Amino acid sequence: MKKKILVVEKNKDILELIDIVLKDEGYITHLINSDHEVFKHVNEFRPDAILLDIINPSEEGTLICKQIKASDTHGHIPVIVLSTHPRIAVVKEICADEVVTKPFDISFLLSVLADQF
């Protein structure tokens, strides 16, 4: 069965690139360019993993990631954070299963995703 990936990315160009790459690898994608109503999308799409854009590792920036991981219903879903922030690695300690810094190597992103399953 194909794995389903929810991609939450504010940059539409990056969102489209990730969509193309993941579909070429056989993943089913659901794309959103805003973190509003993330839980609605998670509930409806039921992803196997989430790629989540976080601008910075502040309390506000990591709130959605923390909420996903704290959820009884969704806490098991791997969350891979994408970010350009130089200190984003700290998010792995806070809530993320993995962190991929932007700009990212496509092969690295795919290997990180594959490691989650």
Describe the secondary structure blueprint for this structure:
Layout (H helix, E strand, L loop, with lengths): L3 E5 L3 H13 L3 E5 L5 H8 L3 E5 L9 H8 L8 E5 L6 H5 L3 E4 L4 H10 L2
Parallel strand pairs: 1-2, 1-3, 3-4, 4-5
Q: Could you describe the 3D structure shown?
A:
This protein is of the alpha/beta class. 38% of the residues lie in helices and 21% in strands. It contains five helices and five strands. It has helices at 12-24, 38-45, 63-70, 90-94, 106-115, and strands spanning 4-8, 28-32, 49-53, 79-83, 98-101. It has a five-stranded parallel sheet, sandwiched between helices. The radius of gyration is 13 Å and the shape is globular. The two termini are 12 Å apart.
Strand content: 15-25%
By DSSP, the count of extended strands is 5
Q: Termini separation (Å)?
A: 12 Å
Shape: globular
Based on CA atoms alone, the radius of gyration comes out at 13 Å
Helix content: 25-40%
Major beta-sheet overview: 5 strands, parallel
Strand order of the largest sheet: 2-1-3-4-5
Poorly predicted regions: none
Order of helices and strands: EHEHEHEHEH
